[in-house]
Amino acid sequence: MQRWTFVTPAILLMIALLGYPIAYTLVISFSELNLATFAPGAWVGFDHYVAAFQDEKFLNSLVVTGVYLVTALPLQMVLGFGIAYLINAEWRGRGIIRSLFLVPLAVAPVVAGGIWKLLLDPLWGVTNWFIGIFGFPPVDWLGDPGMAMVTVVIIDTWRWTPFIVLIASAALLSLPKDVMEAAEMDGASWVRKLWHVSLPLLTPIIAATFIVRWLGAVKMFDIVLASTRGGPGQATNVVNLYIYEEAFRSLHFAESSAMAIIVLVITMLLMVVFLRTTRKLEEKF
Predict the structure, then answer these.
(1) pLDDT value at 71 more than 80
(2) CA 285 to CA 208: how far, in whole Å?
(3) Is residue 245 within 8 Å of residue 230, measured between CB atoms?
(4) Residue 124 Ramachandran class (φ > 0 left, ψ -120 to 50 alpha, else beta)
(5) Which of 86, 123, 214, 279 could serve as a FRET partner for 140 with CA atoms 20 to 30 Å apart?
(6) pLDDT band, residue 99 (cuts 50/70/90)
(7) Is pLDDT at 1 greater than 70 in this prediction?
(8) In whole angstroms, what is the distance from residue 101 CA to residue 84 CA?
């Protein structure tokens, strides 16, 4: 049997699940959509794309998403690998701590957003009560435009850092023990082993983890929807939430399709940059 015989079902499944929705969205973005039949109508060219780039709220949502990505991802990567490095050492009870780190992964993002919304409530939330014990004034975590994005980053970090810890722990356990033992015999300190042995060996894993996490973070939607709904104002209105609001609340399906294609193109371009950077890092180390 030809090798294509084995891969054909997978290719057909990918075309059905990925290819058709993307092609349908692309066609709609260049057409007027008939809401009665959901079929593309008259061809309008790049009108929806021009309108998208003239939409200040859409441009703001791109900036908000960029701020979230630049803030949350480095924080989660540093925390994830740092915590993994600490719990990888031999000490009593580390198995329990590892198990507890998996709990946030079992919580649905919408549920996590709802729970944190209750915890951070300015009047009845436990968080303000706790910081009040130490004499700090209550904080409007979700109502203050300056704090709302910080709160979203905190919730997202709580939700996804354990995922990075899980991958980092597996990577640390796979490091060659003879290299680490040789470093110890040469008198390398804990910091030198981390900086000169562990990090270079972990560089490909760190790069791959960053790409996987970045792809997930670009789709940020549910936590913001459950906690802030994009507010206050437009402070946390990430691009996926704005596209959702435009499509399913304002019924601007064609315009939102153009926005989705723009986001897809930006994501693919950044992905190419990340992959080339990863390849150079792998060649270097």
Answers:
(1) yes
(2) 14
(3) yes
(4) alpha
(5) 214
(6) confident
(7) no
(8) 10
